[in-house]
């Protein structure tokens, strides 16, 4: 199994796909292609049908787009989604909402693990995105979290979809109340998040487009 990803400092979509493969327990080869370089497009296009990362390659099959990668892995590793049907439906809903929305937050607070930018990137639109994310986190944990500390109790794909937001909140110093902050700290302490961050901190490329 191979996973094609971008820079760990900047590629939020890659993070989601990478977390899903890590959670699946599969051994995999990581192919890291730095973004926004003269050869980036050609290198990704050779391996990924969409020309974007992440892309998973397994037994000759290419699976692209972070959510499709997570779904592919979830078909064989049941615990990647909540076992309860109602919880699973809501987990899929918030994952899809994250996947297709939050444009202001995405654009104005790009993921950037190697910088500390407290207070930057804020606007009324970003604040509305943050408020919606906090509401999702609280509602999921209150309704489906049980005794676990993740959105649906056990760590699942929904948490992976919000993982880049967690790094963004850390970089941009977004202040959260206790309930939301407890979830943020739970995510930031997850061993896979720590592993990704350590590798990001060891990167050296600087991409201006991801700096605000
Ligand atoms: N919806 C896609 C988005 C993938 C995406 O936009 N990836 C960016 C990097 S984070 C990319 O590959 N860009 C290509 C480039 O910069 O050349 C997913 O979930 O995987």
From TrEMBL:
InterPro entries: Glutathione-S-Trfase_C_sf, Glutathione_S-Trfase, Glutathione_S-Trfase_N, Thioredoxin-like_sf. PROSITE patterns: GST_NTER. Pfam families: GST_N_2. Gene3D superfamilies: 1.20.1050.10, Glutaredoxin. Residues 1-81 form the GST N-terminal domain. This is Glutathione S-transferase family protein. It comes from Uliginosibacterium flavum.
């Amino acid at each position: 199994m191979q996973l094609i990803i971008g820079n760990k400092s900047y590629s939020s979509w890659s993070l989601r796909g990478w977390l899903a493969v890590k959670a699946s327990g599969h051994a995999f080869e990581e192919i890291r292609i730095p973004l926004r370089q003269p050869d980036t497009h050609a290198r990704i296009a050779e391996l990924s049908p969409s020309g974007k990362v992440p892309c998973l390659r397994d037994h000759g099959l290419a699976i692209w787009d972070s959510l499709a990668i997570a779904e592919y892995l979830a078909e064989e590793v049941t615990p990647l989604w909540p076992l309860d049907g109602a919880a699973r439906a809501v987990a899929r809903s918030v994952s899809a909402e994250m996947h297709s929305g939050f444009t202001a937050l995405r654009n104005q607070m790009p993921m950037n693990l190697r910088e500390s930018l407290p207070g930057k990137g804020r606007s009324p639109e970003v604040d509305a995105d943050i408020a919606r994310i906090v509401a999702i986190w609280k509602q999921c944990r209150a309704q489906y979290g049980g005794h676990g500390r993740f959105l649906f109790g056990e760590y699942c794909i929904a948490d992976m979809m919000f993982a880049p937001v967690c790094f963004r909140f850390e970089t941009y110093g977004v202040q959260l109340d206790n309930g939301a902050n407890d979830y943020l700290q739970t995510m930031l302490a997850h061993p896979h998040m720590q592993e990704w961050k350590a590798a990001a901190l060891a990167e050296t490329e600087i991409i201006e487009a991801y700096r605000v």
